[in-house]
Amino acid sequence: MQPSKPHDPTDQQHRTQNENPNQQQSARRRSKSTDEIADAYADVADELARWRQLDRLFAGRYRRRQFGCANGRVLDVACGTGRNFRYLPPSSEVVGIDVSDEMLAHARSELNRLELDGTVHRMDAQALDFPDDSFDAVVSSFSTCTFPDPTAALHEMERVCTPDGEILLLEHRRSDVAPLAWLQDRRAASHYERNGCRLNHDPLTTVERAGLAVEDASTAFFGLVTTIDATPR
């Protein structure tokens, strides 16, 4: 994975002012509700579970690099079908949450298949039902694009993470390659309506706006994939 340029919070205003018009239009579009997101993923949960081998080929190496050192009590936010579970250290105590019962059914099966110490719960990422400082690490993959209020979700991740813990994100983003970015912009509206996913969003800007302390950020795969290491303020 090739590292991005050094993170500089002073770049935020400049980048925001220079966002692609399609990104600005996407940001102004009505966000789906949590229930609508849950319904969208209920419809595709079985299909996503069948794609787990393909996911390992494409995203497995990124999941392993980003989450392989998340020790202790680990919260997986928007865990979906449990694709991150196999890449967490075996000694971790895993807690997964998601808004879709159908996705969680597959996540429970994944915990059993891997014989991991863990539980999963139906829960809104924007209002986590856990006390402050409950987890040594909070992880999430390909999720900030779907939260109706990603800032609220990130604040909740920060709240339940211990002061010396870490928040580890693996996200997709608008590509650095012009033809790919053009295709993402062209499909953004229809993709969101169908899947509740902001195809051309910028997760690093989202994390910065939420006020988390970004320790490291890097991109890979034509700029389509980004990893973000953050800590509570």
Keywords:
8 helices; seven-stranded mixed sheet; globular; 233 residues; disordered N terminus; alpha/beta
Question: Describe it for me?
Answer:
It contains 8 helices and 7 strands. It has helices at 11-17, 21-28, 34-50, 52-67, 101-114, 150-160, 178-195, 203-210; strands at 73-77, 93-98, 118-122, 135-141, 161-172, 213-220, 225-231. Strands 3-2-1-4-5-7-6 form a 7-stranded mixed beta sheet, with helices on both faces. The model is unreliable at 1-6, 8-19 and 21-28 (pLDDT under 50).
Question: What is shown here, in short?
Answer:
With 233 residues, the chain is of the alpha/beta class.
Task: Annotate the secondary structure layout.
Elements: H1 11-17, H2 21-28, H3 34-50, H4 52-67, E1 73-77, E2 93-98, H5 101-114, E3 118-122, E4 135-141, H6 150-160, E5 161-172, H7 178-195, H8 203-210, E6 213-220, E7 225-231
Parallel strand pairs: 1-2, 1-4, 2-3, 4-5
Antiparallel strand pairs: 5-7, 6-7
Helix pairs in contact: 3-5, 6-8
